[in-house]
C-alpha cells in the first residue's frame, strides 16, 4: 500500500510540474530574434528627376527620371535612369554611380 501511495504521489507531483512549466512554444516565442532595422535609403528616390554629371555619357547634363536605385554596396552603377530620347544604340536607359547624378527639378509643361 505504501508503494502505491508513493507512486501516486510521484505521479501527481510530475503532472503538477508539467502543468506549471511554460510550454515549449512559449519558450521559443520569447527567444525569437528581433528584426534588424532597415538601413537608411541611399541615393535619389525612385521617380525623382536627376541631372547627369558623367562627361562621357550621351546624356551629359540632361535630365532623366530615376527608375531604380540598388541599395547593395557592391553594385558599381546602382542608379538606373530613363530618358525621353534614345542614344545611338536606340537605348533610353542607363546606369550611373551615385556621384554621377544630382537631384534636379522636374521639367515643366512643354519642356523635355
From TrEMBL:
Signal peptide annotation: 1-20
Principal location class: membrane
Gene Ontology biological process terms, A to Z: photosynthesis
Keyword S-adenosyl-L-methionine: no
Subcellular location: Membrane
Keyword entries, A-Z: Membrane, Photosynthesis, Photosystem I, Signal
Top-rank taxon, per record: Eukaryota
Membrane topology value: Peripheral membrane protein
CC terms in the record's Gene Ontology section: photosystem I reaction center
InterPro entries found in the cross-reference section: Elect_transpt_acc-like_dom_sf, PSI_PsaE
PANTHER family in the cross-refs: PHOTOSYSTEM I REACTION CENTER SUBUNIT IV A, CHLOROPLASTIC-RELATED, PHOTOSYSTEM I SUBUNIT IV
Function: Stabilizes the interaction between PsaC and the PSI core, assists the docking of the ferredoxin to PSI and interacts with ferredoxin-NADP oxidoreductase.
Family: Belongs to the PsaE family.
Protein name, per record: Photosystem I reaction center subunit IV, chloroplastic
Protein species of origin: Cladocopium goreaui
Amino acid at each position: 500500500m505504501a508503494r502505491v501511495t508513493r507512486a501516486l504521489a510521484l505521479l501527481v507531483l510530475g503532472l503538477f510540474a508539467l502543468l506549471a512549466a511554460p510550454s515549449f512554444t512559449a519558450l521559443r516565442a520569447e527567444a525569437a530574434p528581433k528584426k534588424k532595422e532597415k538601413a537608411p535609403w541611399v541615393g535619389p528616390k525612385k521617380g525623382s528627376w536627376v541631372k547627369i554629371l558623367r562627361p562621357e555619357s550621351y546624356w551629359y547634363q540632361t535630365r532623366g527620371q530615376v527608375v531604380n536605385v540598388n541599395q547593395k554596396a557592391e553594385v558599381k552603377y546602382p542608379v538606373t535612369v530613363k530618358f525621353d530620347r534614345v542614344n545611338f544604340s536606340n537605348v533610353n536607359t542607363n546606369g550611373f554611380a551615385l556621384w554621377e547624378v544630382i537631384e534636379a527639378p522636374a521639367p515643366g509643361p512643354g519642356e523635355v
